[in-house]
Write a structure and sequence with these properties.
The protein has nine helices and 16 strands. By secondary structure, the chain is of the alpha/beta class. The strands form four sheets. Strands 3-2-7-4-5-6 form a six-stranded mixed β-sheet. Helix 8 crosses helix 9. The chain is elongated, with a radius of gyration of 23 Å.
């Protein structure tokens, strides 16, 4: 994939009269114009992945065998049941819901999972349940509005990408503390997986004034509240760092690498939010996505020195113990 750029042109909403919509593979909604021509990018489960396309060939539909809706609807598409991929795959048309021409119209979606979350999301986006339309079969509509993508991996990201996140952040108010510095931990979420050592990194940040959060243990509103009110967010590499979308533009983001990876989605978010980003290698040299060991590396120590952060005494016993578990699979299985 190429280097992502900021798209400065205003996104458009394409209109298709007498269009057909049909559930394809994995119930992903595909749109065809009145001549049966496939509408580009309406077959995607994950943008940027060719295997989630369908052949863009003309289709023939029988009007007598499909439901007809004499209304204009908005194509939002496939909503993935995964928190991180929601942010970079499923949110890319939500910007259009703020446009006047989309007001009060029903939206076409397929919800794969996390239904409770999506119900809350639509509530904050002022979309009543009566406006959510999920199809079980092929249907024809008087007009289908298809918003352009606000983010296309490896190509561009637009300012409209942030529209739904800013809308939700401005709508959530809780009687909860505000923490200027937060650390988002996977230590509880990754139990039983071969992701070791984060606790020792977490302790460093906690003793230096960071409030530790375990996102999966918080409600959606609580997460948004803490994210939008922080000035500095620290998190490991991966989708957990994407949560910075709810913070103010220009915020500081500290990403601790658990393994070597160039996360194109995070790069796009960093770019469009104009973040002050610091990457720190905090992993054992043989770490990878499936098997990683975080440790107090020279990069971690140098970062703490630069930031004036205290370092607790290092436990050689714990370091050796984690390294043995990481290197010897039978010990890891026994431990779990």
């Amino acid at each position: 994939m190429g280097k992502v750029i900021i798209r400065t042109e205003e996104l458009q909403i394409e209109e298709y009269d007498d269009a057909w919509v049909t559930p394809g593979a994995q119930r992903i909604l595909n749109v065809y114009d009145k001549n049966g021509n496939f509408v580009p990018f309406t077959s995607k489960r994950r943008f940027g992945k060719e295997e989630y396309s369908i052949p863009e060939t003309p289709m023939k539909f029988d009007d007598s065998k499909v439901d007809y809706y004499n209304e204009e609807v908005i194509y939002i598409g496939f909503l993935r049941g995964h928190w991180g991929h929601f942010m970079v795959d499923s949110s890319v048309r939500l910007w259009a819901l703020e446009r006047p021409e989309c007001a009060d119209k029903r939206i076409l979606v397929t919800i794969e999972g996390m239904a409770e979350f999506y119900n809350k999301l639509f509530m904050y986006l002022k979309i009543d349940k009566s406006r959510i339309l999920q199809l079980d079969g092929t249907a024809k509509f008087r007009k289908v509005l298809v918003p352009e993508l606000s983010y296309f991996p490896g190509k561009y990201v637009s300012k409209e990408f942030l529209t739904p996140y800013k809308k939700v952040a401005n709508s959530v108010y809780l009687d909860k503390p505000k923490y200027e510095k937060i650390y988002l931990s996977r230590a509880h979420f990754a139990k039983g997986k071969k992701e070791l050592g984060e606790k020792q990194i977490e302790v460093i940040f906690e003793m230096n004034g960071y409030h530790i959060l375990y996102p999966e243990e918080l409600s959606y509103e609580e997460q948004v509240w803490y994210y939008k009110n922080c000035k500095i967010m620290a998190a490991t590499n991966g989708t957990i760092a994407h949560n910075i979308v709810y913070a103010d533009d220009g915020s500081k983001l500290i990403i601790l690498n658990r393994y070597k990876e160039d996360n194109i989605h995070q790069n796009a978010i960093n770019l469009i939010k104009d973040l002050d980003v610091k990457y720190i290698d905090a992993y054992y040299r043989n770490s990878n996505r499936e098997n990683c060991l975080m440790e107090r590396t020279s990069d971690v120590c140098e970062f703490c020195k630069e930031e004036g952060m205290l370092l607790p005494p290092e436990s050689i016993f714990m370091k050796t113990y984690l390294l043995l578990i990481f290197k010897l699979p039978y010990l890891y299985r026994w431990f779990n």
